[in-house]
Amino acid sequence: MTKQTHAFQAEVKQILHLVTHSLYSNKEIFLRELVSNASDACDKLRFEALDNAALYEDAPNLEVRVFFDAEAKTLTIRDNGIGMSAEEASAHLGTIAKSGTREFMAKLEGEQKKDANLIGQFGVGFYSGFIVADRMTVETRRAGLPAEQGVRWSSEGTGEFELETISKASRGTDVILHLRDDEAEFLSTWKLKSIVSKYSDHISLPILMQKEEWDQEAGKQVKKDEWETVNKAAALWARAKSDITDAEYQAFYQQLSYDSQPPLAYTHNRVEGRSEYTQLLYVPAKAPFDLWNRDKRGGVKLYVKRVFIMDDAEALMPTYLRFVKGVIDSADLPLNVSRELLQESRDVKAIREGSTKRVLGMLEALADSESAEERAKYQAFWNEFGSVMKEGIGEDFQNQERLAKLFRFASTHADEGVSLADYVKRMKEGQEAIYVIAADSLGAAKASPQLEIFRKKGIEVLLLTDRVDEWMLSHLHEFEGHTLQSVAKGAFDLGKLQDEDEKKKAEETAEAFKPVLERLKETLKDRAKDVRTTSRLVDSPACVVVDEGDMSAHLARLLKQAGQEAPNAQPILEVNPEHALVKKLGEDPRFDDLAHILFDQALLADGGRLDNPADYVQRVTRLLSA
Q: What predicted TM-score, i.e. pTM, was given to this entire model?
C-alpha cells in the first residue's frame, strides 16, 4: 500500500480539536493512557496466544519500553503486544466506535474543559498524545503477519491521517510523539520515571527505560545500552497486603476509575475454598456522571490467573453495586471464558455472592462504626449512591435484610441519616407499624396534610423522596416484624396510639356529618372514588388518599413522566369535620363550588395536577367576588 490520506470520522475531528486546545491541565496524563494502551495490547496477545502460541514469534517476553530522542524531540512508547493490521489501524485510530462521545465533548466544552482525566473515561486515550505533540506517528505490525505487512499511521491531529505499508521486523506497536517545542520537560528520564511510578507502577508487565550515567567529559547524563524496569511489574492485587501502602491502593484505584478523588473505602482479600480468587474492590466517594446511563456496562475487571480477560464483567457484581470498581482474579475459571459462559458458571455465582457480601460488609463497617467521622462517610456514600442501593431490595433476596439495615431516610425527626433500626428504637409505646410517605421532594413531604395527626402526636414518619422509593416499598414490606405503612393509603387507623375517647368522638362526628357526606359524594361522583370523614387531619380541611391496594398518586405521576401507562384510579377524599370551612359547608348555598374547590386543593396539596385548572380558577374567582 502506497501512502494514502484519509479523513477522520467527524467525532474524532471534534475531539482532536478539543484535546489540542482545551486539555492543558495535568498534561502528563497522556503517558498513563499510552502505557495503558500498550499494556492492553500485550494482554490481548497473551490471550490470543492461548490458542496460537506461534503469535509470540521469537519474543515470548512481553514488555513496554519508553524512550526519547532529545535532539529529534520525540518520545516513543513501544510494546511487543498484538499490534495492528492496516485495516485495524485505520479503524482504531481513525474512528471512535464507543458510546459516550457526545457526553465527552459536552464535558470538555463545559465547566470541566481543563480536566485531562476525562479523556480516560471515554476510551479515547490515544488522542491524549496530542496534548503535548503536534504530530503522532504509529508504526505497527499485527502478530502473525509477515514483516512486509507493517503499517505506518501518522497525523498532525487536524482533519486527516496518512496510512502506508512499511517493513517492520518485530510485532507490536511504536507510538512516536513529536513533541511541541514547549514540552521539553518530557524529554527527561527523571520526569518520565516519576510519571510511570505515579500512574503505571501496578502494571504487571515490565516497563523498561534506558539507564543513564553521568558523562564527565560531556558534562551531562548520557544513555547506556542497558535497560531497567521502572515499575514494580507485579499485579498489585497479587501482592501481600502488608507490602502495599495506602497510597499505592489509591493510585491503583485512580488508574482503574479515572477518578481524581481517593476512594471512600476498599477491600483486598484472597478467598480459598470451593472457589479460589483474589478480589480488590473499591467504593468511590462520588457517583460517576453515567451512573444512570442504561447503555453503560457496569462491573469489575476480570482476570484469570493474572491474564486479563475482560473489562466490566457484569456477572461478577449485582446491578445495584454497579458503581463498585476493582479487579477479580480467578484461579478456577477457564481462560477462554465468555460473557455468556459467565452467566452460567457455578464458580462465577460463588464469586458474585462472595464479592457482594464483601462490599456490603465494607459499608456496614462504616455505617455501624463508633466513629462519628466514619458514620459521616457512610452518610456521604448514601447521599451519592442510596438510590442505586435501593434497587437491591427487589434484586437480591438473599441480602434483603442486610440491605434494609443499610438504608437511610429523612424523617419528620431528621432531614437525613435515619435508619430503620433507629426508627424502631424511637417508636411510641403501642406503635406497630413503620409509617412512611412518598413525595416529589422533602419540602412536599413535610408539608403533606396527611402528616398532621402524626406531628401532633409526635409519631415519626419516614419521608421518601427518591424516584425508586415507591418501587422499593413494593418489595420491602416489613422490618424486624413491623410492617411499612404508607400514611397516604387506606383508611386512617393508629390502633393503640388512638385512645377510646378519640375513636368514640370520631364515630359520633362521622354519624352527625352523614348528610353532608352524601351531598359531597353526589357532587364529586365523577372525580372521587369515595368521600369520608377522617381524624388524620388537624389544620387542613381535606386530603386525598388511595385504597390500600391501589397505586399511589405519586407512583402514577412518576410512571406518566416516564412515558408509561398508569391506571386512572380515582382518589378518596377525606374531610376534616372539625375544620371551620367543612363545618359550614352544608349550610352554604355555594356548596357545589366549595366541594370542587375542596377536592382540587386536596389534590394540589398531594402534588397532583388538575385536569381543568381554568375551571378551578373560575370557581375561586366566583367565591372571591361574592
A: 0.69
